[in-house]
């Protein structure tokens, strides 16, 4: 099989089968801070006063035998959890296991304040107890199926699907089950997930940070904080790319940005792609090593925003793994 | 090694090492219902109106090669998630991987409304938007470190530890990071986790339901709904046992209830143990097959409420696995 930087594989790979042998697996948390509250409980059955730990980040890892040098850290997007990378809604292999079977250790996180990473509910109880006004409630958001349909570009509007969509729309219920409320706007600034990713990258002694959508910007923010431990950044359809003036800390880190299909048909998406092009151009002009991979430009059509769950998800994974194999490296200090 | 039903192993087992080979792994959701809301978002950036799916239950599974007949479904307790069963706070192997290495497929859930299983935040947004009074906020609870210390029986009161405690108190921060708010009181009745466990047991064609603390009663409630697929029930320090008058649906299912040490020193715990003894006696009198395993009665001392994370967690696991090997079976209909 012959690859150039912009040649697509001739066809989608077969799903690997057979036993999966791990050298290790486990889970742990990174970060967090202790806060004291008087409103932990609404009933006298449990103590309302006490200390809780918040802003930590859940990490689950699996390490294959003869693992490649750099593990891949998988960072989910808005209204989702680490489940994003596991089994697809229609029951196929996700990127987590595929990467593992291709020899990469995987570290799957739940963003701080999401999934298995705790939220802080004491402000809600304070309002219920009449100790604080409703305006002090946290800013919460849940994406409805109808809005997510268009944001994820399954089709122009719910429930109309693009004829060529790669998303398994018949299994959409499996995606809706994965979605969780988003507490991001109620978290401290800067977002604790970013600092926790830096601690994780340093702990691992080098990792590829692979982010998606809302989290697309996080690895860049992490690098701006500290480039240590960041062997490469892959940003799948980031909600936001760094501004061209902010590329300096990134010039020592290989960067790949990936976009799917039907971008130009959405006023939400077209400007994001344009801004990411400008970012990659500025990064390369500053001596960095960036690539913007547009799947339709490679002849791969119909990919949605949830390309890690699309029917051709392993084909897209191969393109990313090929790029990682050629680019991941010990980070140089940004110039 | 010689075992009788009440003989403790001569010593704690060594932690298994070496490669871990799986025939399959993955994750999926069970259950859930669609609800429509006008308060999904607080900002015009995202649509406030739409449909979200709530009350579903996250399940992650791993299947070893040559798996034994009945998988074990691991059901966490209050203020925790499936992380309970993974790596311990001090970095040792948890029951999930140990059971796997002993030949059992494992299914780890996040209770509905906890961890990767969505909560419904629309009532909170409704109050923040002034569309509903604070009294309509959900009933939420977070266990503080100080209260949890005594409830989990690490010692008489925070931060005083029992001299013989098996909990790795020096790594307590790792447990505090695991704790999440509990939305149980805001969920519909009956608790959707119970119905979802029944669907899971039926889907698996037989499983051991292993529950803990708050969830201790769930497998019994699941069996009262439908015994199908329940090969055995192991309840680790249930917050509540079934009432002696409620044993009839359970007479066809082997039942093990496990309690640790220092029970009599806590007014919260002593009555629970007593009530569980009465339940097991009633179950056996009705023709069922119940056992109450008190670890101190077996000469094993210092176990906390979090015995799956205690320093001798694998010793306790062996006792449970030995019981499962001797008792799990296709369920008979309760008489």
TrEMBL record, chains A, B:
Q: Where is the signal peptide?
A: none
Task: State the superkingdom.
Answer: Bacteria
Q: Mind telling me which InterPro entries this protein's record contains? A: AB_hydrolase_fold (IPR029058), Carboxylesterase_BioH (IPR050228)
Q: Which SUPFAM superfamilies has this protein been placed in?
A: alpha/beta-Hydrolases
Which stretches are annotated as coiled coil?
none
* Name the UniProt record assigns to this protein: Esterase
**Protein source organism:** Achromobacter aloeverae
